[in-house]
Amino acid sequence: MDTTTIETNFRSEEYFINMGPQHPATHGVLRLLLTIDGEIIKKVEPDLGYIHRSIEKMCERDTYQQIVHLTDRMDYLSSNINNEAVCLTVENALELEVPDRVKVIRTIIGELTRISSHCLWWGVMGMDVGALTTYFYGFRDRELINDIFEETCGARLTMNYNVPGGLMFDIHPNFVKRTKDFIAHFKTKLPEYDKLLTHNVIFQKRTKGIGILTKEDAISFGASGPVGRASGYSCDVRKHHPYSALDKVKFQEALKTEGDTYARYLVRIQEMWESLSIIEQLIDNIPEGEYRVATNAVIKLPKGEFYQRVETARGELGVYIISDGVKSPYRLKFRSPGFSNLSLLNHIAVGGKIGDLVATMATLDLVIPDIDR
Amino acid sequence: MIRALSITRSIHDWLYSSMSENMAYFIEMVLIAIVYLAIFAVAGLFLVLIERRVAAWFQLRIGPNRVGFQGLLQTMADALKLLSKELTGTEKADKFLYNLAPYFVIITALMALAVIPFTQDFQAFDINIGILFLIAISSIGVIGILLGGWSSNNKFALIGAMRSGVQTISYELSIGLSLLTMILITGSLQLSEIVEVQKSGWLIVQGHIPAIIAFMIYMIAGTAETNRAPFDMAEAESELGAGFHTEYSGMKFAYFFLAEFINMFIIAAIATTVFFGAWLSPFGITESIPILGVFWFLAKAMVLVFLMMWFRWTFPRLRVDQLLTLEWKYLLPLNLMNIVIMALIVWLNLTIQF
């Protein structure tokens, strides 16, 4: 047998594999078209649309109060922040000044939402790299936040607590006490997270130096939130364009320069600490006052274009409204963080192993309804 | 053969007195097989239950506690459910190999169980190459996994099977070499003689430092050998769905599942035999009652099983190349060095003996 036939007999062949739409690591109905050579990823092609519900189109039909309800169903883990984004846009367009009480409560609940979202992410991150126990630890602490939400507005996940002009109800009398209890509880549990996962040698080996995203790439792919900040790109909307009561609090923007999976992990852990500190600064002096300013029953925005950005748990959410002066927008566009963050997956996952892809995807913290809308 | 328990003694005598020797031998074989199958099934189901309760304990849950007292019958109910389920499979699977694969896994697990010395004379086959037999048998199990993953015509299953093949073949070496380290002290591969040697101190005490290193290597390699977390490359549910058994359902899946737990028990049982004096009680406190040996044996094995469960519910999973790095670059050289140290210790008579 001559050498050429040996080569053709033992050629390695790239093959195609379908990861999703039903797959444990894609956290929903994301479909990844993978081209793999043995274990090594050659190409990742996300295929979207499995949970597309035309939310933006439905917004063109609804009144502004109704639009708020739809935003819960986008990034359901930071539903309250989505609500807030639409409310802020409408309030800015109407040039409506909401009371300080509303601003502070919105900020506190927004940060609680961020912690709860990061708790879930932490649990799922552990699960994706194979440590199943983290899932339950994350959910244990998340439950306490959900209980606070349930008492405040009756819902645990899709909260609908914000309305244009303020809040739907005032906070429950127990709110301050329970939030303080949660902070005290969570301060003892966050070091436990580090003990269980962060300082684990296997975990560090799995994440350090994996899925590296440079600062330039982060900017050109439009990465935002913890993904961008882990690459050294200072993109915290709360810092650069503060909204609600965020201009009154002091907090550090979690920044890392490594840009790898471990850095993205650490940024989120640090964000939980920062969120705790923001809540602590505000919880003791919630100003007295109205919880809502009256608006017309049917809100009509003036003619024009309005944009508002907020920082959800996943990154920068932009709400862009074009109004032609009637009760519903002419066009409404959401700039969702998950979509841009997913777009860089191919860039950072190629060359890694299947296990690396899963770990990288976990730190992008994808919520598929946020990407598909 | 089973001799110590008087009831088996009398059955044995009665069989040999009432029929021809070959016939009696055959019937006795069948009886022993049935007994071991029963042990296998009960142990498997019991271990699944323990695993679930231990996992629940680690994870702030309660675990199965509804069927039977404290959920004791839960796994029975699950097994019944799996028995009554429709067997589905892929159309383009290689049917013969697809159906054969679970039996490879389960038969090898059962065969390994035959040489485990539960207590004095409670051991189906006390062959003079016991340890070699165990290592040889446990490496056949991977054929079942490879066949199952390959024949089910599913890429996820294929990746899982190939990972499992790579992993098992690598970690075989560590298991073999760490047991070899201990055999330097005993000078025999026969399990009953290995236990006999330990009457003057468990081997982990006799061999002190190299024995402890060998034990640690054995536990790491044993966990890898049974495809359990943190080495569950073959299943890796967040990466491969269910890995090699993706396309298996019903009882065929249950075979893989049970075999995993039996293999875990076997790994713990070998460790108990080779490192912790098998059925021997600590300091010989119940030496006079041989039947209590079963208790001591199971107690020691269960502690090691718990250790493996502890690994599983604490550690994240390694990546497949890190797994091989760990074996070939760290465990194997350490193991070879350890054998030399152990040889020196045995040669210079530095073992600790009571």
From TrEMBL, chain B:
InterPro entries: NADH_UbQ_OxRdtase_su1/FPO (IPR001694), NADH_UbQ_OxRdtase_su1_CS (IPR018086)
Subcellular location: Cell membrane; Membrane
EC class name: translocase
Catalytic reaction list: a quinone + NADH + 5 H(+)(in) = a quinol + NAD(+) + 4 H(+)(out)
Enzyme Commission number(s): 7.1.1.-
GO MF annotations, alphabetized: oxidoreductase activity
Transmembrane segments: 25-50, 100-119, 131-150, 170-189, 201-221, 253-279, 291-311, 331-350
Lipid bilayer topology: Multi-pass membrane protein
Keyword annotations from UniProtKB, A to Z: Cell membrane, Membrane, NAD, Oxidoreductase, Quinone, Translocase, Transmembrane, Transmembrane helix, Ubiquinone
Function, in words: NDH-1 shuttles electrons from NADH, via FMN and iron-sulfur (Fe-S) centers, to quinones in the respiratory chain. The immediate electron acceptor for the enzyme in this species is believed to be ubiquinone. Couples the redox reaction to proton translocation (for every two electrons transferred, four hydrogen ions are translocated across the cytoplasmic membrane), and thus conserves the redox energy in a proton gradient. This subunit may bind ubiquinone.
Family stated for the protein in its record: Belongs to the complex I subunit 1 family.
Subunit structure comment from the entry: NDH-1 is composed of 14 different subunits. Subunits NuoA, H, J, K, L, M, N constitute the membrane sector of the complex.
Descriptive protein name: NADH-quinone oxidoreductase subunit H
